[in-house]
Design brief:
Layout lengths: L17 H12 L12 E9 L2 E4 L1 H12 L4 E12 L2 E11 L9 E12 L2 E9 L1 H4 L5 H12 L1
Parallel strand pairs: 1-6
Antiparallel strand pairs: 1-2, 3-4, 4-5, 5-6
Length: 153
């Protein structure tokens, strides 16, 4: 028997939900030099999954973000909506990123969705869905030209 549950999109900027507020704060404030803020967000045994791979434990999450955000000039997230079922949240977002490593140091955006599971106020599962090609491959000169050529074919 198939059971379905309705999900209704909500505006995160007007939410009083502490998990929504905490998520918006962490996404927008996290930098390579302040990964300690993750201690109040992720469970120690968190599982994180994105197009790059799977990471287990908060200590490895901190290293991941330290490496990923190293050299980033600016990063910010705009959340358009979220939906939740129990302690499982889905956030749609646009990340704006400026780094000398990609896109000739010009800001660019990537659209994505995060599935985040909370338990006792901490995230124990976090999965990001976004197009890695849009984020990386299209921003590197030779790969970018080739990627755009293939996608336009």
């Amino acid at each position: 028997m198939l059971v379905t549950y309705p999900l209704f999109a909500q505006n995160p900027s007007t939410s009083e939900d502490p998990n929504v507020k905490k998520t918006i704060f962490v996404f927008n404030e996290l930098r390579s030099d302040n990964t300690h803020i993750l201690d109040d967000y992720y469970a120690s045994d968190v599982v994180f999954h994105d197009p790059v791979g799977i990471i287990r434990t908060i200590d490895k999450m901190k290293l991941y973000y330290q490496n990923m955000y190293n050299g980033v000039e600016n990063v910010r997230f705009e959340f358009s909506n979220y939906a939740k079922q129990g302690d499982v949240y889905y956030f749609s977002w646009v990340m704006y990123l400026k780094t000398p490593k990609l896109n000739d140091s010009r800001e660019f955006s990537v659209t994505g969705v995060s599935q985040i599971h909370f338990k006792d106020g901490y995230v124990y599962y976090h999965r990001d869905y976004f197009d890695l090609g849009e984020m990386v491959y299209e921003r590197i000169p030779v790969f970018g030209w080739l990627t755009k050529k293939i996608t336009l074919s």
